[in-house]
Amino acid sequence: MNTPILETERLILREFAESDLEAFYEIYSDEEVNQFLPWFPLKSMEEAKAVYKKQIQERHGEYFSYHYAICLKDDNYPMGYVNVEVHDGNDLGYGLRKEFWHRGIVTEACKAVIEQLKRDGIPYITATHDINNPKSGSVMKRLGMKYRYSYEEQWQPKDILVTFRMYQLNFDEPEDWVYKKYWERSAVHFVETGV
C-alpha cells in the first residue's frame, strides 16, 4: 500500500524520496527540532540514508506506516514530517524545521493526514508529548485530541526518564474509550487536572 499524496491550501504531503535526502537530513539533524524526540539528531548523510531506508521498510513491513514529507506547494521541498505507526497505538508523530514554526503548518498537515486515516478505516489515533514540550500538546488539542493520562518512561535510545502526556482521538471507537497500553506498562501513571 502506498501513502496517497495529500494537498491542503498551502501544502503537499507525500512520501519522502531518495532525492529528498538532503532535506531529510536537515530535519532530522537539527538539535532543537529533535530535542523532545527519542532518537539522537543525525550526524551524517550516511545516518540519514539508514533512517530513510528503515522508514521505507516500515512503510511496507508487517504493519503499514504512514510517513509523510510536509512540503510547501511552491517548492515541494520537505520541511517536516507527519508519521503514523498503524498498529496498536496508531501513534501520530510530527516534526518541523524551526524556521517554519508558529505558522500552523503542522496542524494543517496533521488535519489532512487524519482525514486520510478516517478514509482508510483507522479507528483511533494516539499521540504523546514530553511535559516539558507543551507546544506539542497544543497541536494535539487543535487537532481535536483529548488528554487521557500521563506516565513515566525511560526513553530510548537517549536513556532519559520522561513524563509523557497521552492524547487520543477516536474515530470509530466510543468517545470515552481510552488506549491503556502506556498506562499499564508504566509503574508511574496518573491523570493531571487542568491539562
Could you please describe the fold and organization of this structure?
It is globular and about 45 Å long. A five-stranded antiparallel β-sheet has the order 1-2-3-4-5, with helices on both faces. The chain has a four-stranded antiparallel β-sheet with strand order 6-8-7-9. With 195 residues, the chain is an alpha+beta fold. The longest helix has 15 residues, at 45-59. It contains five helices and nine strands. It starts with 5 loop residues before the first strand and ends in a 5-residue tail after the last strand. 27% of the residues lie in helices and 30% in strands. It has helices at residues 21-29, 45-59, 105-119, 134-142, 181-185; strands at residues 6-7, 11-14, 65-72, 78-85, 91-96, 124-130, 146-155, 160-170, 189-190.
Distance between the termini: 37 Å
Instruction: Kindly report the average pLDDT value.
Output: 93
What is the number of helical segments per DSSP (H or I, 4+ residues)? Answer: 5
Structure class: alpha+beta
Uncertain residue ranges:
none
Order of helices and strands: EEHHEEEHEHEEHE
Largest sheet: 5 strands, antiparallel
